[in-house]
Amino acid sequence: MNLPNLITLARLVLTAAVFVSLESIADPLHANAKLVWIAFVLFLIAAFTDFLDGYLARRWQMVTAFGRVADPFADKVLIAGSLVTLLQFPAATTVLTTWYVVIVIAREFLVTAIRGVVEASGRPFPADRLGKWKMVAQCWTVGALMTMVAGTDIWVWAAQWGFWVSLVLTVVSGFNYVMKARDVLFGGAK
């Protein structure tokens, strides 16, 4: 187990701690700000590890099969799980909608399935720049939503902006992955 893979595993542990912090809040209508801020900090650290593990794996030439599976899995758990958990808080649902969460999760299922089919054909199918920007926008949105749940209004604009930007990037990047894999998915179409 190399360092980048350990960082990926740490992201999963941090993600679980984010969920525990948010789920420990007994009254979603009057959220315990301290627990939300703990979740916020843990979320930011977890999000940063997404950049760090990939950077180190590429720089040190430590890309492994485990990392190629675990890294996107950890990303999906962090984002999808955080969004689902935030749906219980009325402060978050002034911006966050269930249909948005369904679109995010559906896109992740789609890209995972496409990646599996393409890589089974013998061709690598790594994340692209658009998918990485999508992740940044989603992290921005989740972080801003958490500040709203903590009781601040200063980042409402950031949550609203992030919601729409991440929605567009989620849909466009999903379509982009379909187009990149069209030769495998649609039997030779160019």
Task: Give the key terms.
globular; 190 residues; Four Helix Bundle (Hemerythrin (Met), subunit A); mainly alpha
Q: What is the secondary structure topology, with strand pairs?
A:
Layout: H1 3-23, H2 33-59, H3 65-86, H4 98-120, H5 129-149, H6 156-180, H7 182-185
Helix pairs in contact: 1-2, 1-3, 2-3, 2-5, 3-4, 3-5, 4-6, 5-6
Structural class category? mainly alpha
| Count of individual helical segments | 7
Kindly report the CATH topology.
Four Helix Bundle (Hemerythrin (Met), subunit A)
Specify the overall morphology.
Answer: globular
What is Rg? 17 Å
CATH architecture field: Up-down Bundle
End-to-end Cα distance, whole Å, is 39 Å
Q: Total number of β-strand segments?
A: 0
Please provide a written account of the structure:
With 190 residues, the protein is mostly helical. The protein has one domain: CDP-alcohol phosphotransferase transmembrane (TM) domain (Four Helix Bundle (Hemerythrin (Met), subunit A), Up-down Bundle). The protein is built from 7 helices and no strands.
